[in-house]
Amino acid sequence: MFTEAQVSRVIKEWGQDVYANILRVAGICSKNWKLFDLVFFESYSMNTIFFCKSEIYGDCVLKIANGFQDREFTWEYNILREYNGVGYAKVYESNITEVGTKAMLIERIAPGTQLHDEKSLDKRLSVFSELFNGLHIKPKNPSIYKKYADGIKDCIGYVDKREDCKDLLFHILKAKEIYTSIAAVYNQELLLHGDLQNHNIILRNSGKYAIIDPQGRIGAHVFDVPRYILQEHYNSTPEERFDKIDYIITYLEKSLNIPNDIIKKCHYIETATFECWCASVGNYNIDRVIFAEKMMGGRSAGY
């Protein structure tokens, strides 16, 4: 299940107690869901992931909550249940009621190639647009999810306490004002993925793509567009960045039927929000936020 090197890394990253609990929960799940051949997926974020086989379901993914983000784990479970395999990977089994024993058994998408690995920008945009259109549905119980607006509020609360984030505070406050103006028009409460970008869109054997790892937010569908743009933005050189992002936004305006200026504003909001998160875990890059701000004004804003 773990190599010796992985055990050392797990204990270093998460602690001995978390490691012991992973073994305990994996044992319970293996017994209840008839799992075998568990292979640790080397990601040391908030949850433990194993590729495995089930005598009942075949190839699967076992995801265990490590206790750092139990609410987020529950949000992910609920959104996957609501979609029930349409667009998203399917949940086969789960135990999310007990703190310390939360786990999900999820469909394993094969071959699992990330959309990030597709070389053609137009192909990536086409796949994203096809998945996006018609994706967003009304939640059965909106109260169990976090609102998109709450994420902005959390960011303001965090950076406002930081003396070294005054430049970022200015932008997140501006982002809040822009969000309010957009939400006055786009006021639906729909299920959002929250991190709908190339790494979370993976290929099936059928040639179709599926979505994984939803964050479980609610808001208008337009607020699920910018995280994709953000990744393309961050993976671009400074020399190509404006033309590339301008092309992407123009493409998505047509393919998603969302006005160009709305997409640019959402891109700015998401960039400011994401850099607040970066500030909370390390360093942020204010130039990225300034770039997104200038994008709203086009070439006349300095490009």
If you had to describe this structure to a student in words, what would you say it looks like?
By secondary structure, the protein is an alpha+beta fold. The chain folds into two domains: 105 residues, Phosphorylase Kinase, domain 1; 189 residues, Aminoglycoside 3'-phosphotransferase, Chain: A, domain 2. It is 48% helix and 17% strand. It is built from ten helices and eleven strands. The protein has a five-stranded antiparallel sheet with strand order 1-2-3-5-4, sandwiched between helices. A three-stranded antiparallel sheet has the order 6-9-10, with helices on one face. Strands 7-11-8 form a three-stranded mixed sheet. A hairpin with a 7-residue loop joins strand 4 and strand 5. Helix 5 crosses helix 9 and helix 9 packs antiparallel against helix 10. The longest helix has 22 residues. It is globular and about 55 Å long. The N and C termini lie far apart (52 Å). The model has no long low-confidence stretch (mean pLDDT 94).
